[in-house]
Amino acid sequence: MNTESPRWFTSSHSGNGGQCMEVAVNLAAAHGTVPVRDSKHPDGPVLHLPARAFADFVGGVKDGGLGAR
Fold first, then answer.
1. Are 29 and 17 contacting, i.e. CB atoms less than 8 angstroms apart?
2. Which of 9, 19, 23, 49 has the fewest CB atoms within 10 Å around its CB?
3. Is 48 helix (H, G, I), strand (E, B) or coil?
């Protein structure tokens, strides 16, 4: 398995409203980062988030700790 190339995906919870992000979690174990990009601009900039920070973010979303204001 090649973990050097990001395998991008968009959440199945994303609507088709054009405000989606894509992530490539396949790099988390090997590189300790989770690349994130704007799905509308796949050739644009990529944020490389620390895997632990991304996991904490996802956990916060799931448990409602990041509620809308």
1. no
2. 19
3. strand
- Cβ-based neighbours of 26, under 8 Å, separated by 6 or more: 3, 6, 7
24-40 confidence digits (pLDDT tens): 989 888 889 999 999 88
DSSP summary character for residue 25: G
**Residue 39: C-alpha distances to residues 9, 23, 33, 68 (Å):** 9, 9, 18, 22
* Structure tokens, 43: 């050739």
What gap in Å lies between CA 63 and CA 30, rounded to an integer?
A: 27
Neighbouring CB atoms inside 10 A of 36's CB total 19
